Amino acid sequence: MNKFTAFGFTLALNLCFSTAGAAPLSEDEHAFRALYKELVEINTTLSVGSCTEAATAMSKHLVAAGIPEAEVHIIVPEAFPRQGNLVATLRGTDKSTDAVLLLAHIDVVEANRADWERDPFTLIEEDGYFFGRGTADDKGMAAIFVDVMKRMAQSGYQPARTIKLALTCGEETPNTFNGASYLIKHHFDLIDAAFAINEGGGGRLDHNGQAFSHSVQAGEKVYQDFTLEVTNPGGHSSRPVKENAIYRLIDGLKKISGYSFPVEFNDTTRGYFDQVSKLESGQVSTDMQAILSTPPDANALDRLMNIAGYNSILHTTCVTTMLDAGHAPNALPQRAQANVNCRIFPGHTQEEIRQQLISIVSDDQVSIMFTDPPESTSPPPPLTREIMGPIERLTEEMWPGVPVIPRMIAGGTDGRFLTPAGIPTYGVSGIFSKPGTVNAHGLNERLNVNSLYKGRLFLDRLIKIYAGGE
């Protein structure tokens, strides 16, 4: 038994007692909890926070653990002094293999103290949960990755494959600044890797708190906002005319609302519905198998498309999210605008969807423009045995009988920048939660305490399998 096998056994043993409340946390777990608390309590919102402060704080842990300062970089864009990013490297002994990248974002969504039950920027442990903004999205994984790198350096562990860490800023506000895309453009050599581990996957607990399924995120829909606009001369509201910018815009939006983009599948979504059908029951289970036939069963599709979580990964979706019209209450509108947010199924370009929207609206008085420049796109990364094998083996060891399910997400992570840049990015965490309990981006965000500690153990072991070494 080498020192890391012994460490894993000791950690697992401590975990069984400490998270069950039968014994206090070990010294090692105390150190991790303190690091996690430090990170959560540094405000990293766009409005008043500082990722630079958080990145600097985490870098100090790595340097103190023995990672050379030359391998630890705080990268701050000149135009965004508070949007700093951290990149650190633990060199491997096998120069013939490419690195594995540990990716997590340290910025968080805004949180108004007046709306929260607890201070969002104080880590509070209560009723088996850690409460605070970013506890789950994404400072839990960020803290685990720093902790893993720190302990590797302290113990003298030498990976065969180089391990890189990137803590990025701006994942939540990419239209202002995004650290992942900035690193790709300006410091690609520092993050270049064979593949990356990221957020986006995780485990599901059933209503009894038992592990139910473990997902691996491979691919995500493409995010794109479109601005729809109608302009006309306007005039006095006491003399209305038939032509009205607001009415014309609304007519176009109604057409979009009534349109359903064609259903599509890729390897990830086919695997997802096949696996989940075995976990579901009744009509839902039957319908999931029926839509995998060729052609898909139309009635089964209709039923599943009424379930938001399933509908979102069956096809491209577009929905109106914002309106801005008129300039005075006593004047006819001269301008009416709407934001239509599309989540595009992989394999389609943003321009292709823009042209489809133009065709759907079918009104040359309604202009349809990109709100922001389109991002680069790529097919989902392949679910190879190199990636899936270790995840499946560890899942079976730690949660016997729990299936590993491929997943394409409808939201967005920094993986949407890395995968097109040639770094296939996979979401996997070993952190389990009950559906609807985390409330990331919402009020009183929380993360199950037991799940965080067990996810730490899972990621520690998974990284070492991917990296090899002693």
Describe the overall structure.
By secondary structure, the protein is of the alpha/beta class. It has helices spanning 3-18, 27-40, 51-65, 139-155, 179-186, 188-191, 245-257, 267-277, 282-290, 298-304, 308-311, 350-361, 385-398, 415-418, 449-467, and strands spanning 72-75, 85-90, 100-105, 124-126, 129-131, 163-168, 195-198, 202-205, 211-220, 222-231, 235-236, 317-325, 331-332, 335-344, 367-370, 404-409, 425-427, 432-433, 446-448. It is 36% helix and 21% strand. The strands form four sheets. Strands 1, 2, 3, 6, 7, 8, 9, 16, 17 and 18 form a ten-stranded mixed beta sheet that branches. It has a four-stranded antiparallel beta sheet with strand order 12-14-10-15, with helices on one face. A hairpin with a 2-residue loop joins strand 4 (124-126) and strand 5.
Notable traits:
single chain; 470 residues; alpha/beta; globular
Short description:
Helix 3 (51-65) runs parallel beside helix 4 (139-155), helix 4 (139-155) crosses helix 15 and helix 9 crosses helix 10.
Distance between the termini: 11 Å
**Backbone shape:** globular
Helical/strand content category: alpha/beta
Q: How helix-rich are the residues, as a percent range?
A: 25-40%
Kindly report the oligomeric state of this protein. Answer: single chain
**What summary fits the major beta sheet?**
10 strands, mixed
Low-confidence stretches at least 5 residues in length (pLDDT < 50)? Answer: 1-22
Secondary structure tally, helices: 15
* Rg from alpha-carbon coordinates: 24 Å
Query: Averaged pLDDT, please?
Result: 94
Strand content: 15-25%
Number of strands: 19
